[in-house]
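Bumping my old thread because nobody answered last time. Still need a sequence for this structure:
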């Protein structure tokens, strides 16, 4: 086991495990935020697994997850507009912490990959991951017009 696999185990075991618990229990606002954060934590885990196992195909899976994860959260925000209007989620601290984790993972992997096509793909995954997570959290908290009446 190398350091990349250990980091992936910590991210996937701790982060995704906690968000799965958040999705399964508690009020709707916590479940909606946990669903958004589960994809935002699974993506860096996949990036770390790709580096640890030296499997570039895992980068493609992380790219698809970074693209479709926030879209799923936006669909939930739209469908649950009435239920979330009474008690909107407030998760900016957790959102920025997860975005920082994603940025740190992407930066470390870019340093390890060096200037190459893989680095460009890593930067794209990082931009989609961070931007999508911030947009989805803003939609959940009622900040985008037309999604939750914001």
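Sorry it took so long. Here it is:
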């Amino acid at each position: 086991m190398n350091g990349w696999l250990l980091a992936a185990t910590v991210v996937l075991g701790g982060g995704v495990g906690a968000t799965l618990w958040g999705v399964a229990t508690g009020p709707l606002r916590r479940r909606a935020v946990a669903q958004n954060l589960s994809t935002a934590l699974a993506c860096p885990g996949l990036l770390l697994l790709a580096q640890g196992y030296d499997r570039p195909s895992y980068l493609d899976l992380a790219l698809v997850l970074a693209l479709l994860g926030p879209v799923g959260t936006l669909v939930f925000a739209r469908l649950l507009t009435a239920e979330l209007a009474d008690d909107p989620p407030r998760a900016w601290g957790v959102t920025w912490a997860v975005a920082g984790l994603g940025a740190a993972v992407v930066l470390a992997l870019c340093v390890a990959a060096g200037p190459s096509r893989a680095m460009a793909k890593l930067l794209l995954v990082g931009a989609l991951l961070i931007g999508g997570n911030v947009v989805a959290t803003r939609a959940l908290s009622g900040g985008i017009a037309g999604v939750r009446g914001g």
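Helices lie at 3-24, 28-53, 57-79, 81-86, 92-113, 117-140. Let me know if any region looks off to you.
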